[in-house]
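re: ur question from earlier - yeah i can do the single chain one, its not a big deal. heres the input i used so u can compare w yours
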Amino acid sequence: MAKKKGKSSNLKTDSGTASGDKSGGASGGGGITYAQSGVDIEAGDRTVDLIKGHLKRTYSPRVLGKHGAFAGCFRLDYNERLFKRNYKDPVLVACTDGVGTKVMLAVQMGVHDTIGQDCVAMNVNDMIVQGAEPLFFLDYVGVHKVIPEHMEQIVKGVADGCQLAGCALIGGETAEMPDVYKKGDYDLAGFAVGVCELSRVIDGQRVQKGDVILGLTSSGIHSNGYSLVRAIIKQAKLDLDKVYPQLQDDRPLGLHLLEPTRIYSKQIVSLLGAYKVKKPISGMAHITGGGLPGNVNRALHNSINAKINKKSWPVPPLFKFLQSQGNVADEEMLKVFNMGVGYTLIVRPHFADAVMDKLRKLGEQPFIMGKITTGAGRVTF
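and the output i got, formated as tokens:
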């Protein structure tokens, strides 16, 4: 099929090949059109106009080029004195992730302006574990049909997340594929790039016996375990629009479940930047799929264990509610959900108080949740 260049930098159809490419319909009168096959180019163009402002509000002076280019450009180093940020031995750090079946609840609730923050969070929270500073982000939306107002809300959420993360949204793609997605459905994924000095990369190899494990609170379920959540909703016949007193506020269940994933990057980047020479943080973990036992262990080497005290933080009511409604075992809950802990840091014991104080000043509520012992690279409770 012949292709013609469109004005979009953030949209493609199912036949487009690169950002900005659009496929034309059959030439001549009377032939089948692209719109008749299910792809609406005009809706795509209107979406681009609606989302342009959301991308631009995430830009910094390091973003180069104009909106509508085939690819986004980001300057790693500055020459300008005011913005100079040169790296002696830079390591680029990249992540890609999506939001899983949480997007199905967003569709069911008709709430599209928070799921984008989830997508950003799932990427940048992984990246900062290595000690990296997020630089830029790109998104991908696969959709049954482009509804410009829905797309604008999705991208608004992505831009909100990028602002919270301190990175630029420099591009993305929207693929309208009516033969792949059911009516009303869409999927959302993202890709992030960051940078870290080689000498400051955190890989867990410095974690040693006696180190202290600190926890940072989650905002809820974040973006993992939603297949189990949906199974519980179905089995217990829960109503997403109902306010349940067990959740201890006046929001309906659906909004509790759509609470966007917390983004920790500005706090962690600021914390790491406070230590120019010393390295008090020996390991970190983003608590995603697999819960505490499946993620804290990724910050360990094979001669140590992480001993976690499950009584060191209060489990939020939402997790207790889901567990009781689904009759889920304690072990399964810990294996699937973050249980109220979204991020962990492993620090040298004589730095623990100072690190916690810095985190409090950055708006966090850190708590000591365990310590490192000898072992075999496992998490114990």
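The domain at 36-200 is CATH 3.30.1330.10 (60s Ribosomal Protein L30; Chain: A;). not sure if urs matches, ping me
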